[in-house]
Specification:
By secondary structure, the protein is mainly beta. The protein is built from one helix and 20 strands. Helix content is 6%, strand content 40%.
């Protein structure tokens, strides 16, 4: 449910340092949690992507103009597709142990050409990243396989929650809490380095012309019921349409 006081929506509820709402699944395994709700382009801390997990590993915003199309919206942050990106902590190593990435994103309605990539995120050493390509596909790229799969949503430019679950050298993809497809992608090799992990940026150009609402990383493979729980929360928080 959404929490409101009068007509004002409450983005977060804390008890001390403990985040009670949004109450995402498996909080004990949540190692990174960015959420851009309630941020403003005039905030003193606007250049910080605050980590709401217990690890407190903040990210940093680079090159944003803090204006419409290159900065904060009411519940998300938009990249301009030119040079905006967010640097994530370098100490998180992505290897062949199970993990889950989840993020809610709205793709821009100006799609790149079929042979270009509009980058959403890069997770490690250039061989683990996600983009959307052309007018019909989301791409998942690793050092072993390059995967293109069709959008499930009828309107690909609506908000979409993606859950990427890595387990036993296989990647499982969920859109809006529903299982879509699996691919064997082999071991993920990661070289730790600050320049390896971004939001809005991948290996090449263009940078992502997208709006990102949140980003979560777990050190476990979320179950289908946990993925459905998280989607139900974000569906209401971000008004995601089916």
């Amino acid at each position: 449910m959404n929490i409101e006081i009068g007509n004002k929506k409450i983005d977060f509820v804390y008890q001390g340092d403990n985040l009670l709402y949004p109450n995402y699944a498996a909080k004990e395994n949540l190692v990174l949690h960015y959420d851009f709700s309630g941020m403003k382009n005039t905030d003193v801390t606007k250049a910080v992507a605050r980590d709401l997990s217990s690890n407190r590993k903040n990210g940093s915003l680079n090159n944003f103009g803090y204006v419409i199309g290159s900065g904060y919206n009411s519940d998300s942050i938009s990249g301009d597709g030119v040079d905006d990106y967010i640097t994530m902590p370098s100490e998180f190593k992505y290897d062949s142990t199970p993990f889950t990435f989840e993020f809610t994103v709205k793709l821009d309605d100006v799609s790149p050409a079929w042979n270009k990539y509009n980058n959403i995120a890069r997770f490690g050493h250039g061989n683990w990243w996600i983009a959307y390509r052309g007018t019909d596909y989301i791409g998942l790229y690793s050092g072993v396989n390059n995967i293109l799969y069709p959008y499930v949503k009828n309107n690909r430019y609506e908000k979409i929650k993606l859950s990427l679950v890595y387990l036993n050298d296989e990647l499982m993809v969920y859109e809006d809490g529903i299982y879509v497809i699996s691919y064997p992608i082999g071991p993920i090799v990661d070289i730790v380095g600050e320049s390896d992990k971004f939001l809005f940026r991948g290996v090449g150009s263009p940078y992502g012309k997208v709006a990102i609402y949140n980003f979560l990383k777990y050190n476990k493979a979320l179950t289908p019921s946990e993925i459905a729980q998280n989607y139900a929360i974000d569906k209401k928080r971000f008004n995601i349409t089916d």
